[in-house]
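Worked example 4.2. Below are the chains of a multi-component assembly; read each line carefully before continuing.
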Amino acid sequence: MSRVRDALVAAVVLVLGSSPDRPGDEDLDHRVVPRGPQERGAESLLLVLLGGAALAAVAFIVVYALDGIGHQTQWLGLSLGLAFGLLAAACFVTARRLVVTEELSEPYPEHGSPHERGLIEEIVHESGSRFTRRRLVKLAGTGAVGTLGLAALTPALSLGPAFDNDGLLRTPWKRGRRLVDETGRPLAAADIAEESFYTAYPRGVDREQLGAPLVLVRLPLEQIRERRDWAPQGIVAYSKICTHAGCAIALFRKPTFAALEPRPALVCPCHYSTFDPAAAGKVLYGPAGRALPQLPLEVDSSGHLRAAGNFSGPVGPSWWGVRMRKVKS
Amino acid sequence: MRGLVVVACALVLAASAAAEPRGAGLYAAACSTCHGVTGAGRAGRGPSLRGVGALSADFYLRTGYMPLQSPSVQPERSRVLFSEPQIRSLVAYVASLGGGPPVPTPEADGRTAVGLRLFTGHCAGCHQIAAQGGFVTGARVPPLTHSSDRQIAEAIRVGPYLMPSFSTRDLSAADVNALVSYIDYTKHPDDRGGWAIGKLGPWPEGVVAWFVATAALVGVCLLLGRRVRS
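Applying the procedure described above to all two chains together yields the following structure tokens:
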């Protein structure tokens, strides 16, 4: 215990005790840094700021320890911010008013003489005198550097499939495949009510596939303007993946009073691409560049929904080379 | 069976007769311009109210959605223009026009986690996960900050304006209770950060950090870098 106390006392003496003056501080005539006027006021301000910073830091520790006080996060931020702010102000005062400063100017160096420049050009030119086939060497050099640049750009091809798109165009849907809901229960036509929307998946297939999820809505049959034979009882199914950036179509707008309100539409929440479920998923608004792929449906003898084929177009976001392709099941 | 139907018809007739003459008068004065004198709706003005039931009337009147100043604008939450007894008689009158569901009685059951999952699947696309509302093409999506539990349960069934409606098969009464619990939570979330910035997530927070904090830092740098004039 006494050893600890001795150590503490020694530390305090070291810090506070008067350090011996540097030799030459007073004696030598010429100084590197000129003497500046002493400013006791600024020094006091510095001490106050440093003390405040210390207090704020202590406050942080106290607030941290007192778990359960109201607005603890705010108090923590306030105390820590205050500590840093006061410390910064202390540095500011030190730099502006306590450290001796002087302004010095130094002229720019003179421009190199034209003679020297000519000499360097001559040296460069004459150093190549051992080459006999200069143009060929230049060509070879350009070729080597250019190929290296191409090699550096090659990994960019991994950003997307450039040549082999087939995997992305394959979907699990084919004629006769059953539709199930999120819980895996087969969906019956009677389950699909008007004015609401549903998510469906192919039965017995990995749902994480891009081509798996569907969005289903039931519209009055007379409202369906295109592909009416794809929509038994007015139930239409589209890929749930937006053709713009591949988000999930999670919005269905349904007018309460169709005479005065916007018509029914499937909307993607990411960039508000809006598709017309009554007209083959055509783009009504937004950045999507092509219609939402539609899946033809049929109702089997037990009243359950089945696919009647594959999608009308490639599923998922569009890029060059996808728009003209046909889907594979 | 036929006897039952007759009794039911008689009850409905009696109910409509007893549905406070005040309800009929209020309806004629405030609603019939668009919804028609008989409640069958008017082409290009307003939809039929037959079969919408007490649930729908209660929702539209208590949110101030109706009466609507112009039939071509989106109804928005506004000052309720009727007194409590007036709303009661109007709701009874609309219910008497024919069938429709009664006013629901949801109860927040504390299953916030279940509610969050349901909300994510059915509501968050438009209303945002923090229930702060947003946009759908052609309409504003209202925040749910001022929606009472009953109004939420009613809106789920009605699907006001462009919102889809959800049947009891899609969302059971128990599901609605869980949803109400979650939405109630979003009204007073545990906001550890203090300033929620619209509860819109990291994007606005980043914007504040960049534009406010960066401006402050640049200001301080300019202050520090200014030459000391002797």
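Take a moment to check your reading of the output against the notes. The beta strands of chain B are 134-136, 139-141. Chain B touches chain A through 35 residues (CB under 8 Å).
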